[in-house]
Design goal:
CATH class of the largest domain in chain A: Alpha Beta
CATH architecture of chain B: Alpha-Beta Complex
Shape of chain B: globular
CATH topology of the largest domain in chain A: Rossmann fold
Number of domains of chain B: 1
Number of helices of chain A: 6
Radius of gyration of chain A: 18 Å
Distance between the termini of chain B: 29 Å
Number of strands of chain B: 5
Oligomer: heterodimer
Number of helices of chain B: 3
Shape of chain A: globular
Largest sheet of chain B: 3 strands, antiparallel
Chain lengths: 246, 101
C-alpha cells in the first residue's frame, strides 16, 4: 500500500488479521516498487542489525523495531494495534520524506487543502462533518510532506470519529488552521513561531532520539515558514468557510 | 546562581533546537516541552559553547546590543540560571551523545 506516497508492504501471516487489514487499508492499496517492508511476527527476528528506531506500545503489549529497509512488529493481534504501530512507524519513516503526521482534519476546497488542527475536542470532526461529501481527506490524522518545493496534504487510513478511512488523495496546502470554538467566526494570521507553537502539540512523533527530533524540528521549521498559519475561532455551522482566506 | 565547578555551561546535547525568525525554539524530546528564546536569548544561546564564561558571554551581549556591561552581566546570569534550571544547559564537558547541528 501507499500512504502519503510512502510505499509500504505488510507481511501478515494471521488470516483473520490479513483480512481485516486488507479491508481497512483497501483504499490505500498500491503496487509500488521497492516498498518498505513491515513484518508482523510473534517475536523479534534477529537480522544482525541494530534498529534505527524502536517503540514499545505498552497499552497493546505490542512493539516495533525499524531498520533502514524493513520493520518488525510484534503483538499486533488486532487491527487497532496494527493501526497504532503503523502510525508510529510512519511518523519515523516520514523524516526521510520531509513529512510529518498531524492531528488534523483536512478538507479540499477549490483544489487546495485546508488543514484544521487541534487536540481532541477542538473541532476536527465537526469541521469534517460540516464539509461537503467527498471533500474530506481525513478527519483525524493528516500527512503533510514537501514535494518539489510544495507542501501537500494527504489523507491517511487512520480513523477518527467518522469511523471511516480517509481518502487516498492529496492537494497543495492552502493553510493550517488552529481550531478554537467560539460564538462567531474569525481568523487570525500566525507568524512562523506562532504556527509552530500551535501545531507542535498536535504532531505525532514517538522517537526520543535527539537526532530524529532535530530532523523533525528542521522539517517543521521549514513548514511553518512556507505554509500560511492561522487560528480559526468558529461556531459549529458551515459559515466558518466564509471567514477563511481564499 | 547555582553554577558548575568551573563556571561553564554547554547546551544540553539531548535537545533539538532551531532558529525561527529571530527566536530560538528548543524541544526537549523526553518531556515533549517547547521552549522559546527571544532575540537576545537566542544570541546568548548560540554563543554558549562550554568554553565561554558568563562574563565573556555578557561582553559579547554588550558589544552586540546597546546595554551597559552591568545590565548585560545580570541578564546573562539570569538566563543561564533559567536555562540550567530547565535542564537546557548542562555543565561543560557533560557527554550525552546528542544531536549535532
Amino acid at each position: 500500500m501507499s500512504i502519503g506516497c510512502v510505499p509500504l508492504r505488510l507481511h501478515v501471516c494471521d488470516a483473520r488479521l490479513f483480512s481485516e487489514a486488507r479491508e481497512r487499508y483497501r483504499a490505500f492499496a498500491a503496487g509500488e516498487t521497492q516498498p518498505y517492508s513491515v513484518y508482523l511476527e510473534d517475536s523479534f527476528r534477529e537480522n544482525g542489525k541494530n534498529p534505527e528506531f524502536a517503540y514499545d506500545f505498552t497499552a497493546q503489549k505490542a512493539a516495533l523495531r525499524a531498520f533502514s529497509t524493513e520493520s518488525q512488529f510484534i503483538g499486533a493481534k488486532n487491527a487497532y494495534a496494527l493501526d497504532s504501530l503503523l502510525r508510529i512507524l510512519l511518523s519515523w519513516v516520514l523524516l526521510r520524506h520531509s513529512g510529518f503526521l498531524l492531528h488534523a482534519a483536512t478538507v479540499v476546497r477549490n483544489d487546495r487543502a485546508y488543514v484544521f488542527t487541534g487536540s481532541s475536542g477542538a473541532g476536527k470532526s465537526t469541521v469534517a462533518s460540516l464539509s461537503p461529501p467527498g471533500s474530506v481527506l481525513t478527519d483525524e490524522i493528516s500527512l503533510l510532506r514537501r514535494e518539489n518545493g510544495e507542501w501537500r496534504a494527504y489523507g491517511t487510513p487512520f480513523w477518527g470519529e467518522f469511523r471511516a478511512a480517509g481518502s487516498n488523495r492529496s492537494a497543495p496546502v492552502a493553510g493550517i488552521f488552529g481550531l478554537k470554538h467560539a460564538r462567531g467566526n474569525f481568523v487570525e494570521a500566525l507568524g512562523p513561531a506562532g504556527l509552530l507553537r500551535n501545531i507542535l502539540p498536535n504532531v505525532l512523533f514517538f522517537s526520543g532520539e535527539p537526532a530524529a527530533n532535530q530532523r523533525l524540528l528542521e522539517i517543521l521549521g521549514q513548514a511553518v515558514k512556507e505554509i500560511s498559519g492561522y487560528t480559526l475561532a468558529f461556531r459549529r455551522d458551515r459559515t466558518f468557510w466564509e471567514a477563511l482566506p481564499s | 546562581m547555582s553554577t558548575t565547578s568551573n563556571g561553564l555551561w554547554q547546551r544540553n546535547p539531548a535537545l533539538a533546537w532551531r532558529e525561527i525568525d529571530d527566536e530560538t525554539v528548543i524541544i526537549s524530546p523526553t518531556e515533549s516541552v517547547m521552549h522559546e528564546l527571544n532575540e537576545t536569548g537566542s544570541f546568548l544561546w548560540k554563543n554558549i559553547d562550554g568554553r565561554r564564561t558568563a562574563a565573556e558571554l555578557a561582553a559579547l551581549l554588550a558589544a552586540e546590543y546597546e546595554v551597559t556591561p552591568g545590565a548585560a552581566l545580570a541578564d546573562t546570569e539570569a538566563l543561564l540560571q533559567q536555562l540550567a534550571l530547565n535542564k537546557l544547559l548542562v555543565p561543560a564537558g557533560t557527554a550525552m551523545g546528542g544531536a549535532v547541528r
